[in-house]
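Record 1 of the preview.
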Amino acid sequence: MRPDGSTVLAYTQEAVDQLDPDRMFASIADDMNGTVMPGWEPERMERVRELFAMYRGIDDEALFANLKYFLEKIMPVCDAYDINMAIHPDDPPYPIFGLPRIITCEENIDRFLKLVDSKNNGLTLCTGSLGCAKTNDMVKLVNKYAKQGRIHFMHVRNVKLLEDGSFEESAHYSGCGSLDIVGIMKALYDNGFDGYLR
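->
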């Protein structure tokens, strides 16, 4: 809970370090104020072991291969009808519970955009998701991909990074979190971004 009384989502590294999804979900359930986040519904969580088993043997290369296959099938139609596809980065942008993550950094985003190099193949650039990794320079990334016209949907969120690798959502004002929101908005403005913004 924030000092002003508002509640926010947080990623607690200690809970993830337990390396047991069931224990992590149980610890989170007590901290949700009676709400259920999309994707965390009880009926879905009952199948979590089955879902984890489905990813056994899947690594970064397999995910990139699957993504390429998907894009090669849909992008001709998207290009024909000028439909923008906008992939959201992994949140957090690093592996948890041994599950691979691939939309995590500049190098991987560049690789993704080249899988099918179409103006309609783009990003939902989420500053909160990518900004959780200290190695991601969000102003640089926004500037680069806005200049290329590859940001189709912009999620402007601020996060406060904590020393142990945990992070929590914060107010948008740059001073409330770890991201330079003013710099991010300036990069969008300077590059003529006119897409969707949330």
